[in-house]
Predict the 3D structure of the following.
Amino acid sequence: MADTLKIVGISGSLRKDSFNTALLHAAAELMPAEVEFSIVTLHEIELFNEDVEREGFPAAVVALREAISSADALLIATPEYNYSIPGVLKNALDWASRPGSNGEMPLSGKPLGIIGASVGAYGTARGQHHLRQVTVNTNMHPLNKPEVMITFADKKFSAGQLHDEPTRKVVRTHLEALVAWTKRLSQ
């Protein structure tokens, strides 16, 4: 593994003023120095359809799969919709889990950090649990601790910035643990 780790962030929200997308931007600020961090968007990912897949992956799906393949680890910030992950995130993971023309499976074996922010009292706990269930079949390796389930996000973010210092510390600790986890899995 190179001295610089590459981590790709994915927000499970398409909302312009998403707390989870803002959380990924906060992660970019708090990321350890040895990490190259980028965020990919799911805005252009069409609904999974095996007929479309048979014709070849759409360009936005190719870009997502390439970003995941080139990363040493992923960091997913997921909202919680109806006790689960958003459909747009599940859809993207479905596309990324499919074998490519050379049998490549971009998600398989990938270290994963899971974080989330919500205006509610549960802080995406149930959504994160469902995301962990998806990682079993995709053969990803989620970091178990420390968990980042930000509650009452409307009180901790303003103007798209995470301003709550105790929460920033928890996020920083998670990112440091993700880097250590990624290095450990690469040995």
The mean pLDDT is 96. Residues 165-186 form the longest helix (22 residues).
